[in-house]
Specification:
Blueprint (H helix, E strand, L loop, with lengths): L9 H15 L9 H4 L17 H13 L21
């Protein structure tokens, strides 16, 4: 018979349960508190929205378009890997 340490301690399990409980109270769409975003529209929390653009992702999109030279994308296009690095 072989005896070994358990993969998860009681503390590990407690932390995972706490994390699961915390995540269950977050909106799956925007990650904020679920009770706030589903509150009454007239009496609950009000929201302001700002928009920004991820310029790194925009550069990836432009590189993908350039790789296809304006033609129909290659069937292998989803397998292409793109890495974004900040210019110094």
């Amino acid at each position: 018979m072989t005896t070994r340490e358990p993969e998860w301690t009681e503390q590990d399990r407690a932390e995972q349960l706490a994390l699961a409980l915390y995540r269950s109270k977050l909106c799956p769409l925007h990650g904020g508190p679920l009770d706030e975003c589903t509150s009454n529209e007239e009496t609950g929390v009000q929201f302001d929205v700002t928009r920004s653009t991820c310029r790194a992702q925009m550069a990836v999109i432009e590189a993908k378009q350039a790789a296809d030279d304006g033609k129909k994308p290659s069937p292998y296009a989803p397998a292409r890997l793109y890495r974004v690095r900040r210019r110094e």
